[in-house]
Amino acid sequence: xxxxxxxxxxxxxxxxxxxxxxxxxxxxxxxxxxxxxxxxxxxxxxxxxxxxxxxxxxxxxxxxxxxxxxxxxxxxxxxxxxxxxxxxxxxxxxxxxxxxxxxxxxxxxxxxxxxxxxxxxxxxxxxxxxxxxxxxxxxxxxxxxxxxxxxxxxxxxxxxxxxxxxxxxxxxxxxxxxxxxxxxxxxxxxxxxxxxxxxxxxxxxxxxxxxxxxxxxxxxxxxxxxxxxxxxxxxxxxxxxxxxxxxxxxxxxxxxxxxxxxxxxxxxxxxxxxxxxxxxxxxxxxxxxxxx
Length: 292
What we know:
Distance between the termini: 78 Å
Radius of gyration: 23 Å
């Protein structure tokens, strides 16, 4: 009987090759989870800004964002000032409020402008903006608003994840939670309207070049910087002014992008769950399916 001796280092080499082949094959599977890599650009007491990219196994995920993009700080301040969200107050009402507290608008707009100007086509901007509120005349509480942003197809996309979130004392001196795409950190939904369009329950597609943002701008029914409660009715007729021929024209479903399809699915889920009025549903649907 013939015996063959295999050198240990050859076994190790072959094992490594098999392992590497398995890793690379997994990296090519559809739906393989990606991880985010963050590069800190601004890290101060009240504002943090990162450039965020996605990596799948060893490969950078191509995003084709329109970066770098130059948007002035005053224009971004007007945009952020116009964004509002709605949160449930109880079974019969919701609270509509600004997404960005007036105290953090300037610092947030400056960080966003810097991030968009420095980002690569494969990076988006992640921001955590903090405001401090004095309590009992001595102590401070911190509140954080966080979001992700990028520019694509001539529009500014903002995915809001936390709105004026009370920072627990245990986290004040530690690492704050990062904004991410595939999770819902707080229960709220965005308010939309031309030219701030619905792109998901917590996502907006903004025509940032629109002339309305050359000065202060407010959506219809704006809170004007305050919190405002309203009753939620089962069904409200859609106003006639929202049914103009121009607004009736819609893109066919088979022409929607994957992002638009996901946003439409989110919108339908909000409607089925009774979390959005019929008027708001119809308005958001028309904005989502509008012609460009």
